[in-house]
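Hey, sorry to bother you again with one of my protein questions. I've been staring at a protein lately and its backbone has me curious. I owe you a coffee for this, so here goes:
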Amino acid sequence: MKLDLPGLLRERLPSGAYRYRVRVEGEKARRIRLTVTPDHPEFMEHYRAARRGVALEPTIAPEDRVVRNSVAWLTYKHEAALERQVEAGLASSLTLKKRRQVMKILREEYGEYDMRVPQIKIIELRDKMIDTPAWADSVVAGIRSMYRWAVDDVKICQINPAIGIGTIDRGKGGAVAWTVADLKKYRQKHPPGTTAHLALTLFMFTACRIGDAIELGRGNEFTRDGIRGIGWQPRKRGSAPVAIPMLPPLFKATRATTVQGPTYLLNYKGKPFATPDSLGQMFRRWCREAGLDDRSSHGIRKAAGHLLAQEGCSQYQIMSIHGHTQAKTSEIYTKGVERWRMAADAMKRLEGMEW
C-alpha cells in the first residue's frame, strides 16, 4: 500500500519488514512510531493522533473483532504470527505481503465459516479463479500453508483441508527463459552505462533473485585467493549463502554507470529501489522498450541455469550459484542436458557396430 501523507515515514528494517513513524506537526525532531500498519482498520486514527503528538496503542486485535474459531479469526492470527516472524528475520516481507492477499480473499469468501472449512469450499474458491490459474494455485498454496501452521505449529486445528488439492495451472512452466537472441535484443536497446543494461548484467552474471538485486552493491564485493568475488545471503527463506567470482562483464557494468550509490541499481532519483516490486515494474518497462513483452527477471535466472548446464556445470555447481539447498531444485537445469550427453555417448558406441 502506497501512502503519501504529511510527516509519514516508512523505514525498512534489516529483516526486510517496514516500520512507520510520524513526524509531530510543528516539532521536526520529534517522531512517534506507529503500532499499526496501513492495512490496520485504525491506521488513520493512529496517524492523526501521532501528528498531534499522541501515541496510541491498538484497541482491539483484528482476531478479536470476529467470531472465535472462524475462518476469519484463523486468518488474522496467522497474519499476526507471520508479522512476528518477519520482524525476527525468520520470514520474508514479500511472503507476508502475498499471504495477506490470500487471507483477504479467504475472509471475503468464507470468513464466517467455522475454521474447519470443508475441502470442497477451497476447491470451489480455486475454480472461481480459473482465468488466472497460477494465482489460483498460489491462493491454495497460501491456504495450505496457513493450515499447516495451525495444525503443526500452534495446534489450534486438527485437519488441513487444503492438502491433496491439485493445481490447475498446466504446462506454462513459470517464467519464460531468455534466449541468446533475447539477451542480444535487450542489450541493443539498452547500451552499457544505462541502469537497464546493468540490471540485465547483474541478473545474468549472479543469477540473483529480484529481492536480492535491490540490495547488492560494492559492500557485497570481496577478494579471496586474489580473485574478486561477490557474496550475499539470499532473502528467500531456506536459501544457502552465495559467494561467486565477479566476472569481468559484471565488474565493468557496475563501474560504467554515471551515478554510483550504496547499491548497484539506482532509480531515476539516484536512490536504491525501495522494493522488489518497484524494480520489477521498471525492469518490465525496459523489456517492453526492447520488444520483449513477456520476459521477466526470473526468466534470466532460468536462462543462466540452462546455460550453466550446457557449459558442463553439474547440478551441485548450479546449486552453489543459485543458492539452492536441495539438489532436485537445480536438477531441472541439468536433467535434459545430461540425458542428451548420455544418449550421445551411447550412440558413439554403436558407430562401429556391423549391421
Summary: Confidence is low (pLDDT under 50) at residues 318-330, 332-344. The chain has three domains: 8-51, 62-153, 180-341. DSSP finds 13 helices and six strands in the chain.
